[in-house]
Task: inverse folding
């Protein structure tokens, strides 16, 4: 890994935190909040946690090396 990027331990933490966040979003959507708020929950939260999980997984697999 690069000297300037996050360590493997930090990437693991980010991956676990992101997967937990996605699980919370799935729970929130399953309870169906009233109104259009669920679109914001899924859109913003899903993009943040999903993107972070994919990026961390990509780096942990070694495919994100430069």
Result:
């Amino acid at each position: 890994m690069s000297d300037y990027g996050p360590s493997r331990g930090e990437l693991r933490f980010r991956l676990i935190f992101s997967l937990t966040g996605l699980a919370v979003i799935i729970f929130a959507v399953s309870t169906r909040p009233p109104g259009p708020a669920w679109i914001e929950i899924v859109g913003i939260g899903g993009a943040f946690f999903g993107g972070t999980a994919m990026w961390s997984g990509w780096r942990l697999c070694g495919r994100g090396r430069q």
Q: What stands out?
A: The chain is about 70% helix and 0% strand. The chain has a mean pLDDT of 87. The chain has one domain: 8-60. The CA atoms of residues 29 and 39 lie 9 Å apart.
